[in-house]
Give the backbone structure.
Amino acid sequence: MTGKNRFAFSSARVYNFFMAKTKYFVLFASFFFLAAAVISIAYAAADKKTEKSYVEISSPADRSIVYVDNVTLKGKIIDGNVKKLMVQGNEAEIGADGSFAATASLSAGKNSVRIRGVDKNGKLLSPTYVRVLRLVYFGDVPVDYWARSNVEQLATLGILTGYPDGTFRPDASINRAELATILAKLKSPGGQKVEISSFPDVPADYWAEPYIEAAVKAKLVTGYPDETFRPTVPIDRVDAIVVLTRFADLPETYNLTTFYKDILPQHWAVSLISAARAAGFLDYIKGDMFEPARLFTRGETCWVLSRTKYVEAKIKDLMDFEKGYEK
């Protein structure tokens, strides 16, 4: 073998040796860093678990639904290193056995009641949260009222509100201005500002004027042939269903199977009534009489609105404990 060939052979052996060692080094380094990462994650998880398990909450349960404006949070500290406990920013009184009770105020809707411990060194620990949904309660809406859940949910969302005396009056009628305002606020929260009112009986300083204008612009409501709006006139069932069907953007239908005995095929609103029934808006009406002239109630308003896609989505979000809460 020539000197040149010996040199080439030796170089090849050195190269192969180096590559083999390098491969083992890379594998070892990869294993080392992977192990370190796993250990770090394990310690982080352990730390996180430790921080979240220093207290046990006995009541209220997480994901509770209540009807009161405050709850008494009860529980027990299970970590001896915790020397102080803050509930909603206020220090809770801790008993000798580690038990505690503290009052937390609730607003209508979603509430994340925060509990945060402080250890013996004064370090704030990671907070724990109890999710509580407070629904608005009305004493004049019985437990078995047919639209109770709809009333509570829409009142909690602020779509309809109660009266200053704390009642809702679900069977009371709703007038044209009130219904126009409810729908306009959902479609156009700020209303429609105009310099001159569209109706002589709705002055510019009338409380519902901007919302009536917005509802008219959205083609949800119209005035009368004499160019008045008559805001305080209670709205009847047929007019209310027409307005709510327009609000829901339901396509007009004409289906003989949806007719009530008192709604003939030539009735001016038959296609909209048919669309409302097909969408389930009228399922609360029992029997085969529609009663078009019957005054529409606040309870009916809640029922039908709850079945429109826009409001239905808001209710779904309200009742979802995985959204809108601190974690």
